[in-house]
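I am writing to request your help with a piece of structural work I have in hand. I am sending you one protein, given as its amino acid sequence and as whole-number tokens for its backbone shapes. Kindly check, if you would, that the fold set down in the tokens agrees with what the sequence suggests. You will find the record immediately after this paragraph:
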Amino acid sequence: MPLPTSTSTEESARTLPDFYTRVWDVVRSIPRGRVASYGQVAELAGMPRGARQVGRALRLAPTSLPWHRVVTVSGRVAFPVQSDAYRRQCARLSEEDVPVIGGRIDMRRFRWQPTLDERLWGLR
């Protein structure tokens, strides 16, 4: 999905980092032992249909961010199976008692659902 159009390059430069910061805040809010999809994070950060931009934001995220809690909408780890990132994400999820079976997480069981209060008053 293309980024929102703006009248100036300067305005676009301000909007994108602001979105990244919102993505990072949402990801920090995902509780230990839960996961969220890229699209879910995008929606909560204020950019519905912005799943790809979430991926970009995570590539530039601080190292302390629990990026491993973000997976595809079907519950799959997005990295290639043989990659170090895949192994790291699976290991970190396993440490949080989130089983990764065949590269997939059971989203019915482990998907994070923010409460109404969290949605209305802000994520923790």
